[in-house]
From TrEMBL:
Protein name: DNA polymerase V
Record GO biological process: DNA repair; regulation of DNA-templated transcription; SOS response
InterPro entries, A to Z: LexA-like (IPR039418), LexA/Signal_pep-like_sf (IPR036286), LexA_repressor (IPR050077), Peptidase_S24_LexA (IPR006197), Peptidase_S24_S26A/B/C (IPR015927)
Domain of life: Bacteria
Record keywords: Autocatalytic cleavage, DNA damage, DNA repair, Hydrolase, SOS response
Keyword DNA repair attributed: yes
Stretches assigned to the Peptidase S24/S26A/S26B/S26C domain: 31-137
EC number(s) stated in the UniProt entry for this protein: 3.4.21.-
Taxonomic lineage: Bacteria, Pseudomonadati, Pseudomonadota, Gammaproteobacteria, Oceanospirillales
Cross-referenced NCBIfam families: PRK10276.1 (NF007621)
Annotated source species: Halomonas cerina
Family annotation (SUPFAM superfamilies): LexA/Signal peptidase
Enzyme class: hydrolase
Length: 146
């Protein structure tokens, strides 16, 4: 297994506004709105959308298949926020016995576990391990090959 890459936050990310029309895209078939509908020159900066607390945010790239059931795939980039206290159900980045991993934090029978999104990997009981939560995953950036 290769080591995950850690991208540290920059003090003030540059503003990068890109076109962002008001029209919402549907995943099903329900008719076609006019292509010009609600296109008012609105923009979106992904730093504003994905990074809520810049000083507490870092990025990591994912290696492996253990989180595919949660929509996190090999090569994806995670947006991780250190300022959020992990609660059951959160996806977290943690240092467990010297290894950096991404898992979902869960309570099973009132005991804390780090769980995969792939049945091939058993839940990790963390009560007796050296475990430090580095942050909670706020977003996953998944690129499609083109």
């Amino acid at each position: 297994m290769r080591a995950p890459e850690i991208f540290h936050p920059h003090p003030a990310p540059p503003y990068r506004a890109l076109p962002y029309p008001l029209a919402t895209i549907r995943a099903g078939i329900s008719g076609f709105p006019s292509p010009a509908e609600d296109y008012v020159g609105r923009t979106l900066d992904l730093n504003e959308r994905l990074v809520k607390r810049p000083s507490a945010t870092f990025f990591m790239s994912v290696a492996g298949d253990s989180m595919e059931g949660f929509g996190i795939h090999d090569g994806d980039t995670l947006v991780v926020d250190r300022s959020i206290d992990a609660r059951p159900g959160h996806i977290v980045v943690a240092l467990v016995d010297g290894e950096v991993i991404v898992k979902r934090y869960e309570l099973i029978g009132r005991r804390p576990y780090l769980c995969s999104g792939n049945d091939r990997y058993a839940p990790i009981p963390i009560a007796d391990l050296d475990c430090q939560v580095w942050g909670v995953v706020r977003s996953v950036i998944h690129e499609y090959p083109v």
